[in-house]
Write a structure and sequence with these properties.
Layout: H1 3-10, H2 16-24, H3 39-67, H4 73-100, H5 112-115, H6 126-151, H7 156-180
Amino acid sequence: MDMHTQEHQRSFTLDKEALRTAATADLDGGPVTPSYGPHRDAIVKLLNDALATELVCVLRYKRHYFTADGVTSPAIADEFLVHANEESAHADKIAERIVQLGGEPDFSPATLQQRSHADYDDSKDLKSMIRANLVAERIAVESYRQMIHLIGDQDPTTRRMLEEILADEEEHADELKDWLHR
């Protein structure tokens, strides 16, 4: 075996001593090993803001579900409810990840709106509701895109979760765009 081949093989060998050291340090951290380092707190803050955004979106969609009125409103209202439930599932995933990272999910109603990236909306007409939800979904898409970029390789598990949520938010925005033009 030539020197280049040996070097290449060595670069794909795990450091077993480093694995054991990371795995046995601070067992109360659960899955969070020391390699999460200083980024963990910043990631938890990003996730808590995303949690606030998802919760505000649940509330907005629920309000729109219950108050949508008009000939085409039953079908669209039903979709508002579907979106509300999906946003709630996103909030649950985010809260669970915050706990896995050793943080505390912030469900405080007192600060929910100011931590949210998206706004609550109390529109009365269906077109305005759809537009407000589309704007909120586009804000969510952009905020998740930015979070994914910021997290990069620092926390692959969180990044994958955010990528899955981003795909849902893009689908929501696409549906809302279609409803807006009906």
